[in-house]
Fold:
Amino acid sequence: MADFERIETQSELEALAQDLLKQKVVAFDTEADSFYHYFDKTCLVQVATKKRIVLIDPLALGGPAELQPLGPVMASPDIRKIFHAAEYDLFVLKRDCGFVFANLFDTMISAQLLGYPAIGLSALIERHFGIKLPKDEQRSDWSARPLRDSQLTYAAADVTHLIQVTKLLEKELKKAGRLDWATEEFEALTQRQWPDREFDRLGYLRIKGARALDPKSLSVLRELFLVRDKRAREIDRPPFKVLGNRALLEIAECKPMTEVALSKVKGVTDLILRRFGEKILDAVARGAEKNHGPVPKKAATNGPPRRRMDRATEKRVAVLKRWRTGRAKDLEMDPGVLCPNATLENIAWTEPKEATDLEGLPGVKMWFARNFGSEIVEALDGE
Structure:
């Protein structure tokens, strides 16, 4: 494991930023605390150049907003920024710091496009260098201070080999003729915008077993879900750490009216009873006053409801899936990476007559339309 530096002052960060602006390639990673807090934040930023590994502590600086000196580095088109599975890193850095990104390389996306059977960072490093990365800090509380030596070693390891593995992946992408595919994926990721976080008031309907409840129990579950979220916000803890979904479901089913009855529910501890028991019982009483109304259809999935397909569209989807299975095998790619099911359905609904008809369809990437549009049309014409 290479040595690393730690940055905990603004002057050190500014000096680092000036050094990074002179680099051609920089590797990044982040650690956040969503497993431990309702309002998660960036708690650590790992940086690697060809000569340095640096761990930046945003909390020591006063918070993630103090990472602003890194903004010009992230936005520079002349500096390649390497991430593994960049989506979450970009999300938190855009949210917490307002960064703009350019010239990105994502090692996970590259591995997907190359058809690697395992695309995790540890798998990539072991595959190419025979090195096993530490895994014992994956569920660490990165907001706790001081950070342990094992946490720092784990965090540094996540960026130590990114520059070297990127060289190998880029070479493979060029050889496979898929570098332009990857480049388009990276550019799309830099342009992505995430909506502000909103509380999903229908989230209780996605708890496993919720839709099997009778109307009164479902009404109780709704009240429990709302009061749990309120409590989670108050103490800045993830809702599942306030009260687990299984306990929520059991309370909704048995509807305890006393603390003694509530205490018999698995997952309801003495601490929960003391600090939260009265509010839980109040929620049960409110929910039991009336039955739940009709369940909103769009709450059944995490996305918009899918259109009901007619037989002709179903047939086109089947044709496209057969085509995808064969093509993915030829390319040695995961079929879902080549073209997800939802995208195949969008194509089937459109019933394209020309390859250019695929351009601009939801989920259809430019590299896919450019390379496979004619095959798609031919496959549909052949039926």
Q: What stands out?
A: The longest helix spans residues 215-235. The domain at 5-191 is CATH 3.30.420.10 (Nucleotidyltransferase; domain 5). The beta strands are 5-7, 25-32, 42-48, 53-56, 80-83, 104-106. The two ends are 57 Å apart (CA to CA).
